[in-house]
What we know:
Strand content: 15-25%
CATH superfamily of the largest domain: P-loop containing nucleotide triphosphate hydrolases
Structural class: alpha/beta
Helix content: 25-40%
Shape: globular
Number of domains: 2
Strand order of the largest sheet: 8-9-10-5-11-12
Distance between the termini: 50 Å
CATH topology of the largest domain: Rossmann fold
Number of helices: 9
Amino acid sequence: xxxxxxxxxxxxxxxxxxxxxxxxxxxxxxxxxxxxxxxxxxxxxxxxxxxxxxxxxxxxxxxxxxxxxxxxxxxxxxxxxxxxxxxxxxxxxxxxxxxxxxxxxxxxxxxxxxxxxxxxxxxxxxxxxxxxxxxxxxxxxxxxxxxxxxxxxxxxxxxxxxxxxxxxxxxxxxxxxxxxxxxxxxxxxxxxxxxxxxxxxxxxxxxxxxxxxxxxxxxxxxxxxxxxxxxxxxxxxxxxxxxxxxxxxxxxxxxxxxxxxxxxxxxxxxxxxxxxxxxxxxxxxxxxxxxxxxxxxxxxxxxxxxxxxxxxxxxxxxxxxxxxxxx
Length: 327
């Protein structure tokens, strides 16, 4: 698939007699929404409609998957289209394309250095792609970042928290950033502190928190505005088993109520237990995607665990060499 280079100075999408809308407004409400591919020179008409479950979002201008007949599902919550990122000569993410539906618990797997965190950073607006596009609820993250970020919550692997705030202050600060009324912010913050078992430490400074407590307070800050899409990069790292169970139950409740979780982890048992569908990335490319049953069918291994399938997909079934000097 050839993806035109991403242009941060992309012109506004045109309108036409066939797609009436406000001239120059890329998120006007035409009868057939547009999305402009890459450099903005070749608009592609899309036969999709905005789902009613996304009241904050404009009509969804889903991108056409170039040179294929593939359209993302009309109920897509997350779409990555031809995402590409290079660091010098290293291609970290190479034309990655995928779609995640609303209400899915999507596991994103890959060995170290495969491009998982880089992909997530491009999807949430923390790292500008060299090519391609990322959409949250139909909103292009790099063309309308504020609107897109209103729909998402993010727990990155590397957490940069305001350490001189207390846990309660940090959560309430996050709520106010999303323009929630102060009484509602306080009510939700108290509820999150209780559920995540942080009440006893709520008025301690974050600088004094353990790694697991930092994870939980960062998760609370990502959840307080009730995001439609929650991105989690290694959320269980450093979290004790009791808190891990609480977080798993909380995430299940979110997806049961229509939210989408995009989840990256190296803990295969957790991914296998939680995720409704998984994607595997290796060397910057998506090499497999589907439910566990579908991946087993593709591999011809009816009883394989997710770990077995993952190792087979990334070509790491056998260890090369050994440490003879240990014998």
